[in-house]
Amino acid sequence: EAQKSETVKLTEKEIAALSDKVIYKIDVPANRYDLLCVEGISRALRIFLGDQDAPEYKIVGEPEAVMTVKKSNTDTIRPFVVSAILKDVLFTQERYNSFIDLQDQLHRNLCRQRTLVAIGTHDLDTIEGPFTYDARPGADINFVPLTPDDKSFNAKELLEFYETQAAGKHLKPYVPIIKDSPLYPVIVDAQERVLSLP
């Protein structure tokens, strides 16, 4: 007789209701964050089967200094920032959703629930460099997050919104990371538009 565990046995009716589908379990090693999305797994399988060559990535042209870091401020809250510009990327809604899912997976794993790293993605056609990474008082930061009504908040109000409103519940676990800090990390563009509160 089939068993769920050593202490709970399945009845014949429960066994008959079980699916005949084969389910594969894929263990993702700690150094293979590319396998946290369907596209990464499918690419790895194609490479393993010899159906595709491993991709080669290269930096094209000389790196540009596109961000200024105000170290004296950011050292107190989040001392490091890294940025990259990816060109000629076209997102369909399906690709965008998958990309955001991967970003969330990275936040949960590699980024240690955003305590080590927070990832932001922006359309370079809608913002203007150079960019500045700074740390400022929450009351001095005004931001329009991706919320249903696109309302503007100062940073302190935004964190309160995330703590109390259903529309922000997915970000509520991350509020304590910076909530009580006198300065909040922020990335702004050349027009002082807030891009991110890392």
Architecture blueprint of SSEs:
Blueprint (H helix, E strand, L loop, with lengths): L11 H6 L20 H11 L18 E3 L1 H4 L18 H16 L22 E6 L5 E2 L9 E2 H10 L19 E5 L5 E3 L2
Parallel strand pairs: 1-2
Antiparallel strand pairs: 2-5, 3-4, 5-6
Rg over C-alpha atoms, rounded to the nearest angstrom: 22 Å
The ordered string of helix (H) and strand (E) elements is: HHEHHEEEHEE
- Give the low-pLDDT segments: none
Distance between the termini: 53 Å
Total helical elements = 5
Q: How many beta-strand segments?
A: 6
Classify the beta-strand content into a percent band: 5-15%
Major sheet characteristics: 4 strands, mixed
User: Could you report the average pLDDT, rounded to the nearest whole number?
Assistant: 86
Task: Give the helix proportion (percent range).
Answer: 10-25%
3D shape:
globular
Strand order of the largest sheet: 1-2-5-6
Structural class: alpha+beta
Give structural notes.
The protein has a four-stranded mixed sheet with strand order 1-2-5-6. Strands 3-4 form a two-stranded antiparallel sheet. The protein is of the alpha+beta class and 198 residues long. The chain has helices spanning 12-17, 38-48, 71-74, 93-108, 155-164; strands at residues 67-69, 131-136, 142-143, 153-154, 184-188, 194-196. It is built from five helices and six strands; from the N terminus they run H-H-E-H-H-E-E-E-H-E-E. The model has no long low-confidence stretch (mean pLDDT 86). Helix content is 24%, strand content 11%. 10% of the residues are buried.
